[in-house]
Amino acid sequence: MSLTQFLENPPYEAQPQEKQNIYEQVINILGDTADNKMKDTCNNLDTDQQDALMRYIYKGLENNDNSLKLLKWHGVLSEVAGLGCIMRVMSEKRKRVL
């Protein structure tokens, strides 16, 4: 599956093992994406997909999974999606757990 496909339907209600498997695949895709492709990738996502990507980035940073690459993704996504993306993810009343 592609990153876009994972972000179209995040596994918020899935079983923990399924969530973990999808999370690992997303983190691998992010890690394998060339730095010069990040901006195009982020530009091709809609707002909901950008928010889901930000959730994965924060979870990866929390887990210390490829943090350097995830910080690059965070910078690019923040530039493309704006501060609203960060605010929506950080201020959700009901935290969506990935």
From TrEMBL:
Record flagged with keyword Transmembrane helix: no
InterPro entries associated with the record: ARPC5 (IPR006789), ARPC5_sf (IPR036743)
Cellular compartments annotated: Cytoplasm, Cytoskeleton
Span of the signal peptide: none
Entries under SUPFAM superfamilies matching the protein: Arp2/3 complex 16 kDa subunit ARPC5 (SSF69103)
Keyword annotations of the record: Cytoplasm, Cytoskeleton
Gene3D superfamilies according to UniProt: Actin-related protein 2/3 complex subunit 5
Cellular component GO terms, alphabetical: Arp2/3 protein complex
UniProt similarity note: Belongs to the ARPC5 family.
PANTHER family xref list: ARP2/3 COMPLEX 16 KD SUBUNIT P16-ARC (PTHR12644)
The protein's name: Actin-related protein 2/3 complex subunit 5
Organism: Anaeramoeba flamelloides
